[in-house]
Amino acid sequence: MIDGLFEGIMEFAVIAFGAATLQNLLLTRMLGGDHVPRQSSLVAERVFCISQAICTFLSSIGFWLVHNYLLPQVSLLERFGISPYYARAYLWPFCASLVCVLIYFVLYSLAQEILKSDLSKRVRRQLPYACFNSFVCAVLFRAAANDYDLARMLAFAVGSAIGYYLADLLIWEGKQKMEKADIPEAFRGMPAVLLYIAGLVMAFYALAGRGVVTLL
Amino acid sequence: MARANRKVRAKGRLARNARETQATDYFFFNNAVLVQGYAMAPLISGAINLRSATILALAGIILIIPIGVLGEVLTGVLNKHLRLGICVFVTSILIIPEMVVLYRVFGGDAIIIGLYLPLLFVERIITFRATDEVREGFLRSLNRSLSLALGYALVMLACGALREVLGAGTLWGTSLSMKPLWPAASTAPAGLIIVALFAAFWNLICRFFRRMLFTEEDLND
After folding, report:
1. Do residue B187 and residue A31 have CB atoms under 8 angstroms apart?
2. Residues of A in contact with B118 (CB under 8 A)
3. What is the pLDDT of residues B83-99, one digit of tens each?
4. DSSP codes, A65-86
5. Phi then psi for A210, rounded to 5 degrees?
6. Nearest residue in chain A measured CA to CA from B204
7. d(CA B125, CA B145)
8. Which of A55, A109, B149, B177 could make an SS bond with B64 (beta carbons 3.0 to 4.6 A apart)?
9. Where are the domains positioned within chain B?
C-alpha cells in the first residue's frame, strides 16, 4: 500500500513538473497571454495568479465531473452524424462555461464575505479575468483530450498553475528592467515584451530538447 | 477679434476630433491585437499558415460582433457579473455550430489548429465588452465591434500569410517557387518575433499619423 502511495505521489509530481516546465502553457503556447500587456504591480500579479490557480483547480474538478458523468448522457450531436469523440469535443466550451461561471460566482461571493476589504477588492477586480481566460480552459481541454483521470487532471492543473505563476513573474521582472532600458521608440511596450518572451520560449525549447539552432 | 475667436474654436474642434478619433478608433490606433495585446494564443500558436489564419479570423469575426452588441444591450439591464456570465455562456453555445461548419468546410486544416479554435470562446477580445459599464449606443457599439473584428482579422491573415511564405515557400498551399527562408516560422518563438516586428511597424505608422494629425492643427494657426 505504501509502495502504491509512493508511486502515486511520484506520478503526481512528474505530471505537475512537466506541466510547469516542459509544457508551460504561457511560455510555449501563449495561453493566458492576454494578461501580459495588462500587468500593473507585483501585488496585483500575485493576486491574479493565485486566483487563477484556485479557479483552475476547482474548474478541473467540476469539468472532470461534467465530462465523465454528464456528457456521455448527451447524444444530441451524434444525431447529425458526428462521431461520439468529436461530439463531446464540440461540447467542451459549453461544459467549461457552465463550470467557470458557477465557480466565478462562488469565489466572488466568498471573496466578498470572507476576505478583508482591501484584499477582497483586489481579488474581486481580478476574478473575471482569472476565471475566464484561455489558460484555465486550455488546462481543462488538454486534460480531457488526453483522457486523464481526476488525479492526473489535478496534477496537470496544479503544475500548469505553478508554471504560469513562475512565467508571469519572469515576464514581470523583464518588463521592469525594460522600463529602465533605452529602447527605440517603435519597440517600446508590446514589441519589446514579445521579443523578450520569444527569448524565454527559446530557452524553454532548449530545456525540452527541441532544436534551438533551427529556429534561427 | 471675431476672426481670431473663430480660429481658436476651429482649432479646439479639430483637437477634440483628433483625440476622440484616437480614443475611439479600434482598428488602427487601438488595434485589438497589436496595440491592446488580445488574442495572443491563437495568433502565435494557431495562425501558422494562411488557411489556419483564415479559419481563426472567420471564427473570431462571427463571435466578436454579436457578443459585443449583446454586451451593449445588457449594459444597464444586468450587473457586470451576470452580463459576463451570460456573454461567456452565449459564446460557448454560438461556437458549437460554428466549429461544426468550419470543420466540415475546411476539414484537416481546421483540425490542425487543435484547441485554439474552441478556446476562442473565452478570449478577452470577445468577452471584454461584458465588463464595460459605459453605455455607448447600439450603433457605436456595433462600430466598435466591427472595428475590433476587422483589426483582429487583418493581423491574423497578415501573420498567417507571412509565416507560410517564410516557413514553407507557399501561400494557401500553392507553391511560390521559392525556398523556405525560415523553416521554423511556424513555431511559437518565431511567431512571437514576427508579431513583435509587426507591432513595432504598427507603432511607427501610428506615431506618424498622430504627428500628422497634430501638425494639421498647427498649420491652421
Report:
1. no
2. 89-90, 92-93, 141
3. 999 999 999 999 999 99
4. HIIIIIGGG--TGGGGT--HHH
5. -80, 145
6. A186
7. 10
8. B149
9. 36-216
Rounded to 5 degrees, what angle do the CA atoms B24, A132, B76 make?
50
Cα of B210 to nearest chain A Cα, Å: 13
Would the CB atoms of A37 and B197 count as touching at under 8 Å?
Answer: no
Sorted by where each begins, the domain ranges of chain A are 2-215
Contact A100/B at CB under 8 A:
yes
Max distance between CA atoms of chain B, in angstroms, equals 72
Q: Where are the alpha helices (DSSP H) in B135-174?
A: 138-168
Contact B196 A141 (CB under 8 A): no
For the CA atoms of A200, A203, A205, A208, the dihedral, rounded to the nearest 10 degrees, stands at -130
- Residue pLDDT, tens place only, A53-84: 999 999 999 999 988 887 766 666 666 666 66
A128/B84 CB distance under 8 A: yes
C-alpha–C-alpha distance, residues A81 and A48, integer Å: 42
Determine the residue of chain B that is closest to A103 in CA distance.
Answer: B85
Q: What is the pLDDT of residue B18?
A: 65
Partners of B170 in the β-ladder: B175
Cell digits of residue A195? 521579443
Q: How many residues are recorded in chain A?
A: 216
Please state, in angstroms and rounded to a whole number, the distance separating the CA atoms of residues A81 and A70. 20
